[in-house]
Every structure is written in structure tokens, then in C-alpha cells.
Amino acid sequence: CSSDLSDLTVKDPAKIMGSRVSRTKPDQNRSSRGDAAADPADREGRAVDSDPSNLELQQLRDHRTRHSRAGNRRRHHAPTPTKSVTKDPVAQEVERAQAELQRLQLEDTFSRQARFYVPSPSKEALAAAENRLRVALEAQASTLPDTSVDDAAGSPSVEEAGKASEVKGEPTAATSRQDAEEWANCLATQPSPVTSLPGVGRTVPGETIHDEHVGASIPKIDLLHPAESGWREAVEAHVRASVALLYAQTIRSLPSLSVPDAAAATEGLARETAKRTATALKLLERWPRGDGPGELLHEPVGVGATEVEHRGVSTEWWVAVASRAPFVVTRVLVEAFIKPVTREAGCALWYFVPERFRAPPAVFISHAWSGSAWDIRPPATATTMWLDVLAVNQHPATDLGEHSTAGLAYTDVPRIGKAVAGIARTCVVVPGDRPLLPFSRSWCLYEIAETPPGALELRIGWGVWSRTEQEMLVRSVEALDVTAAATSSPKDKEMIDQLVLDRFGTAAAATAAIQGAISRGFAEESRRAFVPADEEGGDARRAEIQAGGGRAHADPEIVALWAQGETVR
Length: 569
Fold this sequence. Notes:
mainly alpha, three-stranded antiparallel sheet, three-stranded parallel sheet, 21 helices, globular
């Protein structure tokens, strides 16, 4: 939808109803801390944060999904208790109207970000849904008693007003400070390992459901066995930790922000956490068991019979998984699902993949664990792939002591380099919203370094083909330093840094080699995705690029920009 719909994305009933909503029930009247910040700007250029030093905060605002207030604040680890079996018809209409408006707004958001293959709803449909909710809220407000305060009672004191603002959820210096401390603590500590098991699901043949987060129909999966006690809470803890890592710069800046800005930022963090928690639970709690695409066997088969570098899966199997996981961070997938499921057998998840979907890998997928599982898509020409979270045993063979490294503790890790060299084709997954994320991780840099000359390609995510962003990418590549790359474990970083030095001799040589590989990869991808606006048959080419998981552009300056960098390197 090309029209600006930001004025319609008002999920807060208080915004739709104005002051009349103050007569509704308390939990329906809770205002959002993000209201003062208004809706974020879209990617077409409306400024959000003029401070370029805090791009994370701008990005958090740019990409936050427009959820309803009820959707933003609900807890996903337990169902909301109901007070009665029979609901009031007026309240039911309010719920249905909110759900319809939320669905349309999510579809609009996803379509505008070009992340999902869904059409954008019309402006008329959004306006009609907003009006339906307005009418429903007016009907509900008219049935409730007037709770206005008698003027004779006098005005509340400053202290009473402060307490009232806290009850209503309005930001204060105290609440902002508390939120900042909670997020800082989340950033500084790691959640406990997940010891309970997720549930077990079963795909219902021929049936689909509309998923509000994916924004499209997905196979219906019945829950056969629920997750063990504590698993859902553990998932939420790991999701929150992953969000803290993604937006570390924003969290560190919270104490220096004004109360409204800090409230808007923490509201954005809460929305991101809620969104990712909901989809993580939906994907992981009822992962289907069987022998179909995206399904897992009940028990591992052939454990130990296949070397790490040969543990490939068909792209058909993985895409069935990724299509259900728009916001699931890869690290959460590993910690909350793969490790618990494979702990008893002590093997890689690959041995749970149905045998008919196992095959020698045609491409090595290099990605950052802080990225989304949705972005992990192989090139269109590859029918099989190697993915570390599937192929590598995530359980240590020895105690992870103070002086231990992943190469010593995890027996499969030292063979990753052999897998890269043996497969001889590496595809670096570049997320559309965080293009340089893979190049800030030590493991990704090592995998790039191990790739044979001419065998590296980049799969560029959606939404990065703008000249401004490409110029920023070029400058970021020029400033890249392999010694600044990080891992979640200091010992792993020491090991990888040494491996990189063994390969290149010096850190400067390693940096130059990685910069060259990135520049060549972007140059090739920019040429492949270039389709002039007036080219005959351009629509067919653009559709072909989209079918392969990419996005076309029509700016020759982008091609020239990366060609210059490629020549320099």
C-alpha cells in the first residue's frame, strides 16, 4: 500500500475514543508509554531520530510492529484467566473489532516492509475496521456507570496525581529508572539453561490457519502434548535476553534519555519482546513430529554415522520451518528448543530430521545467531544446505571449565572449517534490517575466511536497496575490524582469533580479506538484483528475483558504488 497509513495504526482505544474511554474497565484503559512518541516513521524517509549515533533506537522505532494495547501487554507464558464463562455481547464485539483491526494493521505493516508475501489491505478496509472498533467502544462505554469525580470533592493533590499517573501507566522518572535498571540487568546476565521440554505437535493434513504474525496462512498444527512446567517462562526469558543483545546500545542509553524518550524506547523493547515471544512459542511449543517437510522424528536415527560436514538437509525441509518463524531469534531456537530436545540423546538435531530430507549439502549457510530464523534462506539454485544449528552437536563432550573453548568442549566445532572448505560454496545470510550483523560475529568472519576464492555469495534481505543505506554499508565495511568481532563466549573468541591469525598471518591481512569478500559479494548481488525501471520484461525478472528470496532495485548508482569498492579491494 503506497499511501501513508500511519494515522490509521492506532491500536490504543484511548486514542480512538478520546476521553470517553476513561469510563471503561481499568485494564482496558491502561495507556501506553509509547503514546508520546507517536507512530514511528516508515522506511521512505520521515525522520525518527536525528541522532545518528543511536541508530538502534531509531531502528527499534522504525520496525516495531503496531500491536493493540491488549496484544502488547498480554503475557504469553500463561492464558489470561476469565472471570466468567459467558461474555457480554458488547465486550465480545469489542474483542472481535480489535482483533480485526490488529490483523489488517499487521498485514499492512508486513506488506510495507516487504518481508512477507501478503497483499496490503486497502485504506478503506483499515478505516472501516477502525470505525467498527470506535462504535463498539462507544457502545461499551455507554453501558458503564459514570465514575467522574464530584467537583465538590476538590482537585487531587500533587502526591495523589503522581500515584494516579503510576496506576494509569503514565511514564515517570521513577518508572523510567526502574525500566532502565531491569533492561540493564537483562543485558548483563544470561538466563538459566532451559531444562524442561517443549510440547509435541502434529500437522493436520490439508488444513491451514491464518497466522497474525506471519501475515499469511500456515499449516494447522495440533498440540498433542503440552510443554513441561516452566518451559514457556524459560522461552520468554531467553527471548528477552536476545532482544537486550540486539538493542544493547539503546539499553545503555536509557539513563541519559528524557522520560518520554526512555518510555518510548522501553515500550518498543516490550513490544519487540512480546512479538518475538509469541512467535517463538507458536513455532517451538508444538513442533510437529512426523516425516514431512519441517517435521522431526520422535527419536534420533543413525546417531554418529555421518560426519559433521556431510550433515545437509533439503531446502524444502528448512523452508517449511522458517516459514513459521518470522521473528524467532536463532539463539532462542537453539537454547529453548534444540538443546532441550537433543539433551537426552546428546546428538545434533540433524539426526531427528526425517531421512528422506537428509542429503549432502550444496551450500554452507553462514549467519549470526542474533538474526531471525526467517532470514535463513539458501540461494534459489541450491536444493540442499548445511546449517550449524542442525548439523553441530550443541552439547559439550567435556566440562566447560574456565580454560575450555568450544573447539575442545564441542567435538563437532573443529570440523566447521572443514565443512566450509569441503562444500566450497558459502552463502552469508544478510538480514534486511541489520545488514552488517553477520560481519560483527567472529564465527561468521571465520567461515568467510575459510571459504575458497570465488565461492562466497551473499543473500541480501528485504529492504536494503536504497542508496543512502548502501553508502552507509560501504562506510561500515571500510571501518570493519576483525579484532572487534565478538562471540557469546570470550574463550570462543580467543580460539577463533587464533584460527584467523593462523590463516592470514596478521589481523590487518584478515581484515583486508574479509572487506574484499564482503565488497565483492555486495557488488555481485547489486548487479544481479539490478532491473532498470523501463526494461522490457522487467516485471518477469523482478518476480524471478523475488521468488528466489531477494528484491530487485533500479538504481545504477548502487551498482557503481559497490563496483568501485570491488575494484579498490
